[in-house]
Every structure is written in structure tokens, then in C-alpha cells.
Amino acid sequence: MTGGEAMRRAATIISRRTFQQTAMSQRKAGVSSPEELRAFVTSAGPRLVIVDVRNPDASIEPGDQKSLAVAGLPSAGYRPQAQHLIYDRSSNEMPLPDVEKDTPIITHCGGGGRGQKAKDYLMAHGFTNVLNGGGPKEADCWKEFGEK
What we know:
Blueprint: H1 3-26, H2 34-44, E1 49-52, H3 64-70, E2 82-84, E3 105-108, H4 113-124, E4 130-132, H5 139-145
Parallel strand pairs: 1-2, 1-3, 3-4
């Protein structure tokens, strides 16, 4: 390897690290990394449940409209492993999924804030295997589970 090739390679490695660090620093607290999500999805297999906590009512959660334009709510035939259970900021509550307490669950909203609140809420109610996946705004995370 020539000196120029070595410098280009080092610059590429530094650029990748900078990009990854920037992405992680912009990720909301509690949002799992793409690597964590990939491993979780793989180990969960068909038992995986995705809990979408977004609210389609723009008068209550206007910020959800952007993420809903990118990825719709779960429905028959679309995102078959997902359930739509709205996390209500005013009451800090949400419906509980009708699954066993050890079911692998990924919570998400648009970018991770309410996804973390939902994760905490589920864990406080006895669910033991929960990750916060962020949401469509976290494209690198979303690609690991968004179509499930």
C-alpha cells in the first residue's frame, strides 16, 4: 500500500466513524443501535411484536404527521407483527399488548421520545424483553424492523 492509499483509507475510516458518531449523538436517549435491533429481531423471530405508539390525531400529536407520511400505521397486510397502541402523553399511559410478559417487543414513535416512555411503561407493567427502536426518523434503526 502506498502512502497515498494509506492516507485515503485512514480518511475513509475517520469519515465513517464521524458519521456513526454523529448519527448516534443525534439519536434520542434510549434508542437502541441498529446492531442491537438487528440481533434482537433475529433472536426474536416470529415472536417479535412491534408496538407503534404514534397518534394519528394531528390536534394531539402534530409531530407524528411527518413520520406517518413516511411509514403508515400497522394494518391488515401491512406491518403484520406490529400493533398500534397509542402512548398518551397527558396521562402517561397506554394500552398493554395482549402478549406474554417475556415476548420480544420493540416500541417506536416517530423518533424515539415516546418510544422510550412506552418501553419504560411496559417494563413497569412486567414486560421483560423490550427495546426502543426510535422510529422512521431513525432510518438506520427503522430498516431493521420497520416492515415487520
